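Q: Structure tokens for this one, please.
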Amino acid sequence: MDTFSAFASNVSYSIRPRVHEVDFGEFRGCVDVIGREGAHTFSFTRFCDMVRSGRDRAELDALRLARHLRATECRHGKSWILPGQVSVRCEPELVEDVPSSLLRPIKGGQSRRHLRVAA
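A: Here is the predicted structure, written as tokens:
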């Protein structure tokens, strides 16, 4: 490996905001970052400062932290925010560049139409 290719190597980051339940009814957001550079892989986790009483607020905190990490610590390579654990209820501008297939749907009164049709 010559000197130029050592400094010009690209790093790709997968940034995953997540929510942990700390205690009953208390949630804390965190962000897992997995970096890949050639054959090498590294990872780190950053936690949000505050514990929230609602999951929605913890999701917002995690998405904001993910965007902050993307702009600061992961700016030297390609990066993708993959919020697989984050629901659709968050602020639209935080997930506008994320495909809807990666967002968890809102749980609610889903009909079981396929069972009614089969019966």
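A few notes: The radius of gyration is 18 Å. The beta strands are 12-23, 26-37, 40-47, 78-81.
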